[in-house]
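Dear U.,

For the methods section draft, I wanted the exact inputs and outputs in one place so we can describe them consistently. I've listed the two proteins in the order they'll appear in the manuscript figures. Please don't edit the token lines directly; just add comments below if something needs changing.

First protein:
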Amino acid sequence: MLKPLRQGLPPLDPEAASEAASCALPARYDAVREARRFTRSTLGHWDVGDRFDDIALVVSELVTNALRHALPAELPSGAGQSAPVRLHLLRWTGRLVCSVRDPSDESPVPRETEDDFSAESGRGLLLVESLADGWGWHPVTGGAGGKLVWALFRLGSTK
């Protein structure tokens, strides 16, 4: 298990952010499309410069990972309509954090680089690492359980 990573993460207090938005996502794979739509709409109102496509792609990967790996294999009847995953976008001057909250206490595990590169899945966190300026995760506090996986982007400059 990876230890929680916190380096480079600004405070997640929405009061300190110049812009903040979030949306609840149901336990269905079409939630990835909804997350992309929400991200594109939100970022369209914010000045994120040339990072727009990188941020949208990372959000897709983080939400996909939450849906694939952080939800129970068998959801209770009707649970597909509930929203166990939540996407948060927070912008400060010069940086943006996208984070995905899910109900699992398990740490995200990047696939080993020597794995089959022709595989159609399994490299999402490697993609996040290559596009974002930093990423990590930490447990959700306050007894709610789950974790928050985040990616940090510096705005106004390319990586």
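Second protein (the one for the lower panel):
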Amino acid sequence: MIKGLTLKSLLPLSLLLAFTSIMTPAHAENNKNIQDVEFAVFSLNNEIPALTKSKARMLYKGRTKKLNGSIKIVLVDLPEKSIHREEFYNMLLGKSVSQMNGYWASLSFSGKGTPPEELSSDDIKDILEWLNDNPNGIAYAPVSAVPENANILITVLQGE
């Protein structure tokens, strides 16, 4: 130990170093990117109407499977380990993936619903392939990944 330096005298310096490392521009930029993520709930079927946030929540909680009383909707989900799935459920429903898994398990057990089909990858090509095979299918992805010809039903922002 250096003469005159004690743990008590190093505490303010260590706090200052910790604070400045947290507040570096790189960290601030990363934080900004996380908060700026915007998701699109979309389909390739142009006959599916736009969704309100309430209706999107009902769909993703299994409380409704039809839109406009007649269009039977099929949902797809990203892989359980996908960071986009975690962010999407947190932003739309305020729930974690594990909370949603429990929710769907309870609905399945009671016979009141089945969870969305889970893709093996969160690659936009796989999502689009699934949507091509399911005409009334609805998916979600970061807005930046959604093709221009998609029918965006609603966008979901952090903190909305």
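Candidate sentences for the figure legend, describing the second protein: Residues 89 and 95 are 6 Å apart (CA to CA). Residues 7-22 form the longest helix (16 residues).

Thanks,
Y.
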